[in-house]
Amino acid sequence: MLESAAHSVVWWEIESADPAGSQRFYGELFGWTFSPAFEEHLDRPYWLVQHTGKGIGGLQRAVPGAPPPHTGVRLYVEVDDLEATIARARSLGTTVERERTYPKLTPCASGSSLE
């Protein structure tokens, strides 16, 4: 196991085929609010999810008929060494779907969990 004080979920996103319905549901259930974001950077609509004025996650329109990672929930976990964590995940049998991304922002990568 990689040793770190981090390993906390620092962001999450929901990919939804019905963003308006998701906004109604989560808004009524948890009191979350939604504001459009990143319109110039993404190919699909995206909203910041907020609770009591603080950004807690994101909601994005799913690609119609697409399999994961384009549907469902994505978690972002803080790690000390992204490349070491990617290598360790591969050694444990995961598929890395996207290598390091967003080089000018916080670097991240994605992989699928084991079934």
From TrEMBL:
Alphabetical list of InterPro entries matching this protein: Anthracycline_SecMetBiosynth, Glyas_Bleomycin-R_OHBP_Dase, Glyoxalase_6
Superkingdom of source: Bacteria
Gene3D superfamilies documented for this protein: 2,3-Dihydroxybiphenyl 1,2-Dioxygenase, domain 1 (3.10.180.10)
Domain Glyoxalase-like: 14-103
Protein name: Glyoxalase-like domain-containing protein
Organism: Virgisporangium ochraceum
